[in-house]
Design goal:
The chain is of the alpha+beta class. About 35% of the residues lie in helices and about 20% in strands. The protein contains 17 helices and 17 strands. Strands 14-11-13-12-16-17-15 form a seven-stranded antiparallel beta sheet, sandwiched between helices. A five-stranded antiparallel beta sheet has the order 4-5-9-7-8. It has a three-stranded parallel beta sheet with strand order 1-3-2, covered by helices on one side. A hairpin with a 4-residue loop joins strand 4 and strand 5. Helix 8 (about 230-245) packs across helix 10 (about 290-305) and helix 9 (about 255-265) crosses helix 12.
Length: about 475
């Protein structure tokens, strides 16, 4: 492979080759659950370099693993242990190519971090609404490849709904230039939708045209205490009726979630003097100022209190307090990691069935594994739950992970019963690849394999992921 390495270096130059001693970090996933061995880790600086790399990989039948910020949770950007797969990291391709504030679009490369994309939009007086806890590290190419969700889906939609056009390098090295900032284009198949959410198994996304929105003039944030997920669902219906399209976020988390955050993040403050069974974080945004937004939130919460839909509410009085409320929600995953290993699930349900799913599935897991602790939180407004299971107090965490298959079967079977999905926003990667065959119909799988074979006949695009 010495000759291949020299040809790779000739394409990307010295700055584009990651030293072997540093390559291990790129071959290990964020949760350190998957680790492989790469033939090489390359960082191209342009679409032309990506095309040349793909042409070489095709000629040599080398598997290619596209990678962004490497913040994924399902092993989708990790090479296998063969030492024959090429990690193609897009981080050097991080330019904002254009911003069109009148068209409300921006064109940027796949290696831009989500935070950089947000900042570029803000500098142009616009909002790019995708927001994730990992936004300082995750990159736009990865967001597109996994159809990332985040906290603003209720109002703005998933990444798929924020993308108008793509630039993609195909398996043979051809470049599809689909960078069109059009909201209406009925000229045949919408090819971009094939690559969004495909996790790099059909091509390498190198750039995108993304939607922008006017900046909200006012925002209001509140944390609300409720008795149960059922009551939270009633509150959601009430909030949507009162606030309509102004409702941006509606996040559910349990008392255990808050307890973990307060334990491991001392700077965070409890929103109430006493603990409650569940909490909802609500955010609205409006074209009027923040005083008007807070007034609307107060009116909505006051009516909810009168109707017995909530126990208590705390309305942020400043931007700093709003950020503090969001920290309670956004630090849950890291707090659970500090607590120890756990069994994670990223699922989605019809919004109307979220509460029933939690009630039924909690009971089923408790019967099978008494004493487990449920760390359930997520984007209730769009039906996406992070339904995580921690071991009982005093149980060794590695030993508990031996139950992962059995616990995940209970969870995923319940998801299927409630007409949901076993992956809402994290993707399939390698961790859920075998599960996919249980919950997708044979016809769906056959169609997916046909598309894969048409676009990647040699099977070199992110081998072993999704299918």
């Amino acid at each position: 492979m010495t000759g291949v390495l020299a040809r790779l270096a000739a394409i990307v130059g010295p700055q584009g080759m990651v030293a072997p001693d540093d390559a291990k970090a790129y071959a290990t996933d964020w949760r350190k659950r998957y680790s492989g061995s790469a033939l090489a880790v390359v960082k191209p600086a342009s679409t032309a370099e990506v095309a040349a790399l793909m042409k070489l990989a095709g000629a040599e039948r080398i598997g290619v693993v596209p990678q962004g910020g490497n913040t994924g949770l399902v092993g989708g950007a990790t090479p296998d242990s063969s030492g024959r797969q090429l990690v193609l990291n897009l981080s050097r391709m991080n330019r904002v190519r254009a911003i069109d504030p009148i068209n409300n679009t921006m064109t940027l490369e796949a290696g831009c971090t989500l935070a950089a994309a947000q900042a570029a939009a803000l500098a142009a007086g616009r909002l790019f609404p995708l927001s994730l806890a990992s936004e300082g590290s995750c990159e736009i190419g990865g967001n597109l490849s996994t159809n990332a969700g985040g906290t603003g889906v209720l109002r703005y939609g998933n990444t798929r709904e924020l993308a108008l056009g793509l630039e993609v390098v195909l398996a043979g090295g051809g470049v599809w230039d689909g960078l069109r900032g059009l909201r209406k284009d009925n000229t045949g198949y919408d090819l971009k939708q094939l690559f969004i959410g495909a996790e790099g198994t059909l091509g390498v996304i190198t750039a995108a045209v993304l939607k922008l929105f006017p900046l909200p003039q006012g925002q209001a944030t509140a944390v609300v205490a409720v008795d149960s997920a059922d009551q939270a669902l009633q509150l959601l219906e009430h909030a949507q009726a009162q606030l309509a399209e102004r409702l941006v976020g509606f996040e559910l988390f349990s008392s255990l979630c808050l307890e973990l955050v307060l334990r491991y993040y001392p700077a965070c403050r409890a929103p109430f003097q006493q603990a409650h069974p569940h909490y909802v974080l609500i955010e609205l945004a409006d074209s009027r100022d923040s005083d008007a937004a807070r007034e609307m939130m107060e009116d909505m919460l006051g009516a909810a209190l009168e109707q017995g839909l909530i126990r208590d509410a705390a309305l942020a009085a400043s931007g700093a307090q709003s950020r503090g409320f969001w920290a309670l929600r956004e630090n849950i995953s890291e707090a659970q990691a500090h607590e120890g290993k756990n069994i994670k699930h990223d699922v989605s349900l019809p919004v109307s069935r979220v509460a029933e799913f939690i009630r039924v599935t909690d009971a089923a897991i408790a019967r099978a594994f008494p004493g487990v602790r449920m760390v359930c939180f997520g984007h209730m407004g769009d039906g996406n739950l992070h339904y995580n299971v921690s071991p009982p107090a005093g149980v060794e965490h590695d030993a508990f992970l031996a139950n992962q298959a059995a616990i995940s079967r209970i969870v995923h079977d319940s998801v299927a019963h409630f007409c949901g999905s076993i992956s809402a926003e994290h993707g399939i990667g390698q961790s859920k690849r075998d599960e996919l065959t249980r919950y997708k119909s044979q016809l769906e799988l056959d169609v997916m394999r046909s598309i894969k074979a048409a676009l990647d006949p040699q099977g070199i695009m992110n081998p072993g992921k999704v299918l």
